[in-house]
Amino acid sequence: MRKIIVVTERQAAFQAKVAGIKNFDEAFEMVKSAVFDKFKMHRAGLSLILQVMPTNLGAYHILGSNVIVMNSYVLAAIRKLSGSEGEYNAYLFMVLAHEYLHSLGITDENRVRQMTFELCKDALGDDHSSTRMAKEDPSSLFPQLRTMVQTQFGREFHVVKDFDKSSQSYIQ
Ligand SMILES: [Zn+2]
């Protein structure tokens, strides 16, 4: 049976933008604009750090800090497993949205998950990979993640250059 997927023109335009994301900074700009449109919340001056972490952890935000740490092991795995840049970008958008909401002071995990889901659903539609990953978790799209065993935290931290650069110009 054929499934009919309905997206609005606004969602289709946003889907195309997410599909075309070229780097972390672009992904984050889209997250910030989507969060502002939906929740009227904004903050500036965040840094992104990449670290190898256990597979069950996508990213984390240290409460009260300006740092988001993303699991570079999971990122590399999803880049490899995803059939397209589109799915990798969908993951990037969803994870950054989740951590950005935490950085806005929302500590409750269930609330952040619900808000991330609503945000993705609203901006990208029910059937988009970001929305599906926000509803469940990335392993719903990439079941292979469940069998990957990576239990250690790496000792190296890589700071992503030029992240959140649009707000850096405000700070100077
Ligand atoms: Zn969380």
Tell me what the structure shows.
The protein has a single domain (9-167), classed as 3-Layer(aba) Sandwich (Collagenase (Catalytic Domain)). The mean pLDDT is 92. The chain has helices at residues 9-19, 24-39, 72-81, 85-103, 109-124, 129-135, 165-171, and strands at residues 47-51, 59-61, 67-71, 158-159. The chain has a 4-stranded mixed β-sheet with strand order 2-3-1-4. Helix 4 crosses helix 5 and helix 4 (85-103) crosses helix 6. The chain contains 7 helices and 4 strands; from the N terminus they run ααβββααααβα. It is globular. Strand 2 (59-61) and strand 3 form a beta hairpin. The chain is an alpha+beta fold and 172 residues long. The structure holds zinc ion. Zinc ion is lined by residues 98, 102, 109, 112.
- Secondary-structure-based class equals alpha+beta
Domain count, please report it.
1
Strand order of the largest sheet: 2-3-1-4
Biggest pleated-sheet summary: 4 strands, mixed
Shape by Cα distribution: globular
Q: How widely separated are the two ends?
A: 57 Å
* Low-confidence residue ranges: none
Q: What compounds are bound to the protein?
A: zinc ion
Care to count the β-strands?
A: 4
How much helix, percentage-wise, in residues? 40-55%
Number of helices: 7
CATH architecture: 3-Layer(aba) Sandwich
